[in-house]
UniProtKB/TrEMBL annotation:
It comes from Mucilaginibacter galii. Residues 193-352 form the Peptidase M20 dimerisation domain. This is Peptidase M20 dimerisation domain-containing protein. The keyword Metal-binding applies. It comes from the Bacteria. The lineage of its organism: Bacteria, Pseudomonadati, Bacteroidota, Sphingobacteriia, Sphingobacteriales. GO terms for molecular function: metal ion binding; peptidase activity. The keyword Signal does not apply. It holds the Pfam family M20_dimer. Keywords: Hydrolase, Metal-binding, Protease. One of its GO terms (biological process) is proteolysis.
Length: 456
């Protein structure tokens, strides 16, 4: 522990400077205009892995953005940890709401503000630096493989192919990921599940062209109104999702599991205050923790149609659109839910419009084990670094590739995230506490130490 703290102290500024360099790349995977920057981020990541001491570092080409691979095999009889992370980020929009530019990392009040500060550059880079620390101090007790991808925020389609084609190279005993949140620094926690995802786009078509809303309005169905009604009908009065069959495969938690989840500290007043909302909302019969961690949901991510420019235009739009996502829990599958949604949405369309449903991407839910040696190692590492034992929680987000690691490689995952829900992931003014960054670099080597010891 002393060696770790000393190394971090002696290299404090450099550890931060390098993260800042990484954050300066606008590596937005969703928008092709950032292509050059995304590719440069992969090269930077590879260079830093190499500099930290990784062997066989490769920027592996795919049909999309490359996957950065690197490894350090110290002894084939020792356990192997596969570290996964992503160097791509979400689009920074809406830009005008950022206090400082998203790709010019700025420190305010001990926090780094930048797109990707927490999700996931700040978090995966802790692993690169913790690896460097173990190499420099001769304390690496396990084999390590790094796989850092550039398409997580757009569904990891090419990583799926890469995993299937590189089973031998990716052989490991556990996958370690820092891309999730903790309750707080005072109450550290480990996420033990991720939700799955079905993401699709719907289009509602009305007349064959935009119409004068005075000449035709009242006589021709407005697709925006129809879309709004169709979307509103997707939840019933108890906020259950009203798609037939939607809940058929949902595994209900036992009373004991529900009790354990609800015993985690959660202050509804603070929650509401932070978001400036008067009341929370959700499925009747479930707490906020359960609604986000253990229940499936349906959200409109975007909705548009007609005139949305400056001023007013009197128009009856010919078309309206929405992007809709559903978060899934065990044992729902994205394929079945996507199909149920599509059939339902087409069925409820009234005769005066046509609808089209286009699936985007999906991912399966996972629950990670809490009785494994790797989970215990994470528990011990956090307890040692934070002075408090971590609480298991269920995360509401999705990392679709985790279910695939299990299905294709047969490897379970430990989600050792150091973010906070208040870090504004995907929002303007995303941040990551400098304290969390250093704390992560401190905790990760302890994970390796305990994992090696417990694996003996
Ligand atoms: N790191 C997040 C997922 C996450 C955040 C899990 C917080 C738990 C707590 C990841 O980068 C992400 O945003 N995933 C997307 C899914 C992807 C297919 C676009 C998500 O959850 O929306
Ligand atoms: Mn992420
Ligand atoms: Mn994300």
């Amino acid at each position: 522990m002393q060696i770790i703290k000393q190394y971090i102290e002696e290299n404090k500024q450099r550890l931060l400077d390098e993260l800042f360099d990484l954050l300066r790349f606008p590596s937005v995977s969703a928008d092709p205009k950032y292509k050059e920057a995304v590719l440069n981020t992969a090269d930077y990541t590879a260079e830093k892995l190499r500099a930290a001491g990784a062997d066989n570092v490769e920027v592996c080409q795919t049909a999309g953005y490359p996957i950065v691979y690197g490894e350090k095999i110290i002894d084939s009889t020792k356990p192997t940890v596969l570290v996964y992370g992503h160097y791509d980020v979400q689009p920074p929009d809406p830009l005008e709401l950022w206090e400082t530019p998203p790709f010019e990392p700025t420190v305010r009040d001990g926090k780094i503000y930048a797109r990707g500060a927490c999700d996931d550059k700040g978090q995966f880079y802790m692993h690169v630096k913790a690896f460097e620390l173990m190499m420099q101090t001769n304390t690496l007790p396990c084999n390590i493989k790094f796989m850092i991808e550039g398409e997580e925020e757009v569904g990891s389609n090419n990583l799926g192919i890469f995993v299937k084609e590189n089973k031998e190279r990716l052989k490991a005993d556990v996958v370690l990921i820092s891309d999730t949140s903790m309750i707080s620094m005072e109450t550290p926690s480990l996420e033990t599940g991720l939700r799955g995802l079905s993401y699709l786009e719907v289009e509602v078509f009305g007349p064959n062209r935009d119409l004068h809303s005075g000449v035709y309005g009242g006589a021709v169905a407005n697709p925006a109104t129809i879309l709004a009604k169709m979307i509103a009908s997707l939840h019933d009065e108890n906020n259950h999702i009203a798609i037939p069959g939607f809940y058929d495969d949902v595994v209900e938690l036992t009373d004991e599991e529900r009790k354990a989840l609800n015993s985690a500290p959660y202050n509804e007043e603070e929650y509401k205050k932070d978001l400036d909302i008067a009341e929370v909302w959700g499925e009747a019969g479930y707490s906020t923790m359960e609604r986000t961690g253990t229940r499936p949901t349906l959200e409109v991510n975007g909705i548009w149609g007609g005139y949305i420019g400056e001023g007013a235009k009197t128009v009856l739009p010919s078309k309206a659109n929405a992007k809709i996502s559903m978060r899934l829990v065990p044992n729902q599958t994205s394929e079945k839910i996507t199909q149920l949604f599509t059939e339902h949405f087409i069925r409820i369309a009234p005769p005066y419009v046509k609808v089209k449903v286009t699936p985007h991407h999906g991912g399966e839910p996972v629950v990670t084990p809490t009785d494994s040696v790797a989970y215990q190692a994470a528990q011990k590492a956090i307890t040692e670094a934070f002075g408090v034992e971590p609480i298991p929680t269920r995360g509401g987000g999705s990392i679709p590739i985790v279910a695939l690691f299990e299905a294709e490689l047969g490897i379970k995952t430990v989600l050792m995230g150091f973010g906070l829900d208040s870090d504004a992931l995907h929002s303007p003014n995303e941040k990551y506490d400098i304290f969390n960054y250093y704390k992560g670099i401190e905790t990760i080597p302890l994970f390796y130490k305990h994992y090696a010891e417990l694996s003996k």
